[in-house]
Amino acid sequence: MEIELLGCHFLVERIGVDGDKKRFVELLKELDGQVDCFGLGGADLYLRAGKYRYEVVDVARLVSVLRKTPIVDGGELKETWEREVPRYLEEEGFRLRGRTALIMSGMDRYGLAEGLWQVGCRLLIGDMPFALGIPIFLRRLWTLRFLSVLMMPVLRRLPIDVLYPTGKEQERTTPRFPWAFEQSDIVAGDFLYIRRFMPEKLPGKMVLTNTVTPADVDDLKARGVALLVTTTPEMGGRSFGTNVLQAMFVALLEKRPEDIAPGEYLALLRELKIRPRIVTLGEVGSWKT
Predict the structure, then answer these.
(1) pLDDT tens across 241-272, in order?
(2) Predicted structure pTM score
(3) What order do you get walking across the sheet with 122-125 strand by strand?
(4) Rounded to whole angstroms, what are the CA distances from 68 to 23, 32, 36, 73?
(5) In 3D, which of 106, 101, 37 has the Cα closest to residue 229?
(6) Measuring CA to CA, which residue among 246, 249, 234, 256 is closest to residue 8?
(7) What is the tens place of the pLDDT at every residue in 213-230?
(8) 43 contacts 243 by C-beta, under 8 angstroms
(9) Fewer beta carbons below 10 Å: N end or C end of the chain?
(10) Nearest residue to 48 (alpha-carbon basis) of 138, 166, 127, 158
């Protein structure tokens, strides 16, 4: 699809490889130097929690073939922009204070988790049950930071298909810990994780996520979701992930990602007047102040 931002013309293309690592590397080699930036989807370059950041070894090995074109995973926007989204929702009249928010992965969405905590939400953090199968939900950010220091050096060495659903696994739904969804008002995080583990019904919930398709929206409505909020706006019939948006910003700024300060991303977001996308799917009376 073609998009224009601040007078610059962008051609954005999504190319999937169905979890095929060999094909992924071939594509990187083929397009290296031919495009301005890659936006990595379905995996992260780094595991993050607050100031802690650990490179994912398997992903680093795959992208090491790049020599000219930078690659980003949207992590810097997750840490900056997504932290602001709960405050924006409160300003728009949605009552979040006192709600329970299920965070599918705090290491993937630490900024969003912190933003929800800052507006007064109670947290259920699902890294251990959803990523590792250990039935222990964390309730405090400091506990997540402490465990991250212990776990990240180990997790970063796991194969990519253990850390993230890839290929056909992204389309499979295997409900896990349904009570956590039932006890939560807000379900937040990467939609691949949400779709993979969500129960059949999510009555009255707010789903706070990133990339969804029209089919995903219909599915969430059928499950009883009241509100869908995507942290990035709709473009061409779908909401693109933070990885795509960050890749566009890197190309627009004409800098290497490591040379871009967090404030520069926020300044662009404000200049472009980018806002979260809010979709009403059901009765929202209890959500409004």
Answers:
(1) 889 999 999 999 999 999 999 899 999 988 98
(2) 0.88
(3) 122-125, 100-103, 186-188, 206-209, 227-230, 277-280
(4) 19, 6, 9, 17
(5) 101
(6) 249
(7) 889 999 999 999 999 999
(8) no
(9) C
(10) 127
